[in-house]
Amino acid sequence: MTLSPIAGNAQGAKDFQGQATYISKSSLDLGDWGARLSEEQKKQVKAQLKNRLEKTYTLTFNKTESFFKENDKLDAISGATDSWGKNFAAGDQYKNVKTNAQIQEQEFYGKRFLVKDSLQPISWKLGSETKQIGDYTCFKATASIPTNELTWYSFSWDKLRQNSSATAEGTQETASEETLQLTEVEAWYSPQIPVGHGPSEYWGLPGLILEVSAGDTTMLCSKLVLNPAERLEIKAPEKGKDITKTQYQATIVEKMKEFRSNRTGRSRG
């Protein structure tokens, strides 16, 4: 990959702007089910899920604000967007590192929500290791972040089982502490781009994050435009029911409980 600055008009530090394109790639663990598949069948499954495993995003930023969104991609097989996956995918995200605010637009089964909350706190450990990404010298930083807080907009049946178990025992706080899962994050940032922004939930380093790996997913900046000729507009999402991250998670869990209950009722009937 060649990542060179594509510069536009020279502007003062106050008006500094940029736009970064990220390529996201995730590995696929087929688990016990995959062990029963032939190599050809595994290739077919991965081809069908490629739309979920490889994505592109755009991060538009200035000194204090950023706007992050996924670039739409048609399913190569069906020719349609992945509607099921979109219910549990991250929506358009606005971050303001000066006011510590995050506003994210989420759509869940036809209902639109405006999730307003504080930025995800991240205790970065800055290292001295460096590597070159395109024309930029990047420094390594690591952090351990609660997995549930990184994927608050998503859902898994494990989350539902943990929620149900903790609620039934009446020990929500204790259970949460005992089952807290952490995701190890590795980020590479460049002080040559002096903004505290990054893709997705990541931010707070002394330079733009050009690469970040967490779990089975790596996001890498493939194109960068600094101070483009046309001024970039950064606006926070405005449509949807105001809700916090915790409230949004609770909404998803309750809806999935309802789905499971209805499915169980039909199978018994």
Descriptive notes:
The protein is 26% helix and 36% strand. Strands 1, 2, 3, 4, 5, 6, 7, 8, 9, 10, 11, 12 and 13 form a 13-stranded mixed beta sheet that branches. The termini are far apart. It contains eight helices and 13 strands. With 269 residues, it is of the alpha+beta class.
What attributes does this structure have?
alpha+beta, 8 helices, 13 strands, 36% strand
Give the helix/strand layout.
Elements: E1 5-7, E2 17-26, H1 31-35, H2 39-48, H3 50-53, E3 54-62, E4 65-70, H4 83-86, E5 93-96, E6 101-108, E7 111-118, E8 125-133, E9 136-146, H5 147-150, H6 157-169, H7 172-178, E10 182-190, E11 208-214, E12 217-226, E13 241-243, H8 245-268
Parallel strand pairs: 1-12, 7-13
Antiparallel strand pairs: 2-3, 2-12, 3-4, 4-5, 5-6, 6-7, 8-9, 9-10, 10-11, 11-12
Q: Name the helicity range.
A: 25-40%
The tally of strands reads 13
Structural classification:
alpha+beta
- Main sheet record: 13 strands, mixed
Briefly say what this structure is.
The protein is α+β, with helices and mostly antiparallel strands and 269 residues long. Helix content is 26%, strand content 36%. It has helices at residues 31-35, 39-48, 50-53, 83-86, 147-150, 157-169, 172-178, 245-268; strands at 5-7, 17-26, 54-62, 65-70, 93-96, 101-108, 111-118, 125-133, 136-146, 182-190, 208-214, 217-226, 241-243.
